[in-house]
Amino acid sequence: VTERPEAGELVCALDIGGTKIAGALVDGGGAVVTGTRRPTPAAEPGESVAAALDQVVDELAASPDWSRVRAVGIGSAGPVDAVKGLVHPVNIPGWRGFPLVERVSGHPAVDGVPVVLAGDGVAMAAAEHWRGAARGHANALCMVVSTGVGGGLVLGGSVYAGPSGNAGHIGHTSVDLDGDPCACGGRGCLETIASGTAIARHALRGGWQPADGDASAAAVGRAALAGDPVALAAYDRAARALAAGIAATAALIEIEVAVIGGGVAQSGDLIFAPLRRWLTSYATLPFTRTLAVKPAVLGTDAGVVGAAAIALQALGLPLNPPA
Ligand SMILES: [Zn+2]
User: Fold this and answer.
1) Do the beta carbons of residue 286 and residue 172 sit within 8 Å?
2) Which of 28, 44, 45, 235 could hold 5 in an S-S bridge, CB 3.0 to 4.6 Å?
3) Per residue in 109-147, is it b (16+ CB within 10 Å) or e — as a string?
4) H or E stretch including 72?
């Protein structure tokens, strides 16, 4: 007999990033029942960001489904301190040691409902493992490659958050000993080469001329598809760095699959083709050679679906298969 949550129980899931705060009510099969989002006023004082978060919870609490909420799951831009319930998101300067769990627990509608916090990379991995491209894999690395590079791990069949909720921070592992300084204080981090920001910076350094002043990674991608050699080289370098990071992870913990989402992954073969090619140069040990690289499937819902998964897992509730 499979134990299931009582029919209709929901998780309030919150996904907090540097550009948006998303909230949703998610059911035990990982389906989003209702959702809302608003921009993160990341450049404003911390209290303004907290007020935007309160408004997201207000909106969800106004739903007739709110009475079925049994837990709150939060995936936040990191680093996080899941033990103390604090967050220090690099891209939200007003939040340094912000008591996120206390703030959400103190919302009048939340009153007594357990609140569970993890990093957004961990949440994304939980989502892809539950409903996405890592489904059915016991050991996986899931990554978001966009303005930054985030990640999370699935080990032995479950998401591994680590003691403080930050495990899988692959974007801040170094793949270039003498590389550029990183915002984290390190040097040559994967994020300094493979993020969308880094791709655009590298293309500009190499002499790429953006049309219409659009110097985004997507614009570099369009130039690459049109055959611009500098733009192609920027994507190839990002792919090579990703391959090195993924191969290192495979050697350390024997992953079967690496799942990649985020804006840079949406460029498709432009990143995946050189990545798979470079992987043959870096993932060379016999137990790493069969590693598959797949695009993520959940898109913008990954954050809230993953936050719900983390809350269910922390409370010992089953994650039902998708309906
Ligand atoms: Zn770094």
Assistant:
1) no
2) 28
3) ebeebebbbbbbbbbbbbbbbbbbbbbebebbbbbbbbb
4) strand 69-76
**Which residue in this structure is represented by tokens 């791990």?**
153
> CA 154, CA 117: separation in Å to the nearest integer?
17
pLDDT > 60? residue 2: no
CA-to-CA separations, 299 to 124, 146, 304, in angstroms, rounded:
10, 12, 11
Ligand 1 centre distance from Cα of residue 88 (Å) = 14
53-79: pLDDT as tens digits? 999 999 999 999 999 999 999 999 989
Segment 285-311, tens digit of pLDDT: 999 999 999 999 998 899 999 999 999
**Is the confidence at residue 318, as pLDDT, over 90?**
no
Question: pTM of the predicted model, to two decimals?
Answer: 0.93
The rounded Å distance from CA 166 to ligand 1 centre is: 14
Cis peptide bond upstream of 210, omega within 30: no
Å from CA of 256 to ligand 1 middle: 25
Beta strand 20-27 with 257-261 is unpaired
Neighbours of ion ligand 1 (CB under 5 A): 172, 182, 184, 186, 189
Ligand 1 centroid distance, CA of 184 (Å): 4
Predicted local confidence at residue 4, as pLDDT: 46
Q: How far is the CA of 152 from the centre of ligand 1 (A)?
A: 16
The span from the CA of 239 to the CA of 278, in Å, is: 7
| Alpha carbon of 183 to ligand 1 centroid (Å) | 6
Distance 107 CA to ligand 1 centre (A): 34
| Residue 48, amino acid | S
User: What is d(CA 46, CA 98) in angstroms, rounded to the nearest whole number?
Assistant: 8
How many A from CA of 185 to the centre of ligand 1? Answer: 6
In this predicted model, what pLDDT tens digit does every residue of 268-282 receive, in sequence order?
999 999 999 999 999
| C-alpha 180 to ligand 1 mean position (Å) | 10
**Interval between CA 312 and ligand 1 midpoint (Å):** 31
